[in-house]
Amino acid sequence: MKSEAWVIALTGLSLTCITATALFLLVAVNPKDEAYGATPLVYAAVSAVAAFAFNRASACISRRAVDVS
Fold first, then answer.
1. Angle 35-41-15 (CA atoms, 0-180°, nearest 5)?
2. Smallest Cα–Cα separation from 54: which of 18, 5, 3?
């Protein structure tokens, strides 16, 4: 049961990071202010890496839970 909670939490974080990536890319495409520079692209890249890491962690915990039971 404990591992299922971790899988759900990490999957939720991964989906949140995917949404953040999309939003930062939209800001990069259509900035309201030129002062942003490349910051939205950096944030989008960091969010994409975090989404991938959370997804892989979720899959790893899910696999271990199946192997143990």
1. 130
2. 18
Calculate Rg over the CA atoms of the chain.
16
Tokens of 35: 């002062």
User: In terms of pTM, does the model score above 0.90?
Assistant: no
Q: Indicate the pLDDT class of residue 3, thresholds 50, 70 and 90.
A: confident
DSSP state, 30? S
Please give the backbone phi and psi of residue 58, each rounded to the nearest 5 degrees, phi first: -65, -45
Residue 20 contacts residue 48 (beta carbons within 8 Å) = no
Q: Which burial class, exposed, middle or buried, applies to 55 when counting CB atoms under 10 A from its CB (0-12, 13-18, 19+)?
A: middle
Residue with tokens 């969010």: 47
